[in-house]
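Key result, reporting period 2: structure in, sequence out.
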């Protein structure tokens, strides 16, 4: 089973595309993109007008970050604009202590 030499240009393009997608997902995860924080698409109505647009979903990937904080049994997610740090929405949950 010998290596056959050069890869086809189609295969190189496929590997390059996959590498770019994986790098983009890694960068978004590292920077805390809101869309990768576990929020559902229906909750990405950032301007709260009752209508979810494609632009708002894209903002969840590129312009909105999710900052998680925990204080005892209370955990919060603060959704902020990337760059300015302006808070858009804060969602908090309190979980009961285990017996």
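The corresponding designed sequence is given below.
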């Amino acid at each position: 089973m010998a290596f056959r030499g050069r890869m086809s240009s189609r295969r190189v393009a496929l590997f390059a595309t996959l590498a770019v997608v994986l790098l983009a997902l890694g960068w978004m995860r590292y920077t805390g993109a809101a869309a990768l924080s576990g929020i559902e698409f229906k909750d990405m109505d950032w301007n709260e007008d009752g209508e979810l647009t494609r632009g708002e979903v894209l903002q969840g990937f590129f312009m909105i970050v999710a900052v998680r904080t925990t204080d005892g049994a209370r955990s919060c997610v603060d959704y902020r604009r990337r760059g300015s740090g302006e808070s858009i929405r804060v969602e908090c949950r309190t979980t009961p202590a285990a017996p």
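The radius of gyration is 20 Å. Residues 9-94 form one domain. This case is discussed further under Risks and Mitigation.
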